[in-house]
Design brief:
Layout: H1 2-31, E1 52-58, E2 66-69, E3 72-78, E4 89-95, E5 116-121, H2 126-131, E6 135-143
Antiparallel strand pairs: 1-6, 2-3, 3-5, 4-6
Length: 145
């Protein structure tokens, strides 16, 4: 019986040490991560590297997001909480329950500023955007200092 208890304690100790090692490795990978933002040759990047940030979010669904634009719809997406000091690089996609494969404009960013942008969807009514629960998912990379 004592042999068995010692053996169980030894295994438990090894598992605890393994968990601690994995936690340290995870923390090191987070600290050692690297974000580099490069321009396209025309865009000047003057901010220091430690100031780079990736921020991601979604617009949410419903009548507070989508607005009518002629026979189409648009959404103004707020990125203010990201605290960018310059215009970030933004990538978007639109999710929903129906009609996504025929969307026009679902990956195009309009009126980009440091804290917001617009997405226009051609060929969708306001009612469709609400009923089909369209939602703009976005990722922005920019500078915060």
């Amino acid at each position: 019986k004592q042999w068995y208890q010692r053996r169980v304690r030894g295994v438990a100790y090894r598992i605890t040490m393994l968990h601690q090692c994995l936690a340290v490795l995870f923390l090191l990978s987070v600290v050692a991560s690297d974000l580099k933002i490069v321009g396209d040759g025309r865009t000047r990047i003057e901010n220091p590297e430690p100031c780079a940030r990736v921020c991601t979010g979604n617009s949410g669904v419903g009548s507070s997001v989508w607005q009518r634009y002629k026979s189409d719809v648009f959404a103004t997406v707020n990125m203010k909480e990201c605290n960018f000091v310059t215009r970030p690089f933004v990538t978007i996609s639109v999710t929903g329950r129906a009609g996504l494969y025929t969307l026009t404009g679902a990956s195009t960013v309009y009126n980009l500023s440091r804290d917001r942008f617009k997405v226009y969807l051609r060929g969708r009514s306001y009612e469709q955007a609400i009923e089909w629960e369209y939602d703009v998912h976005w990722t922005a990379s920019g500078f915060i200092c």
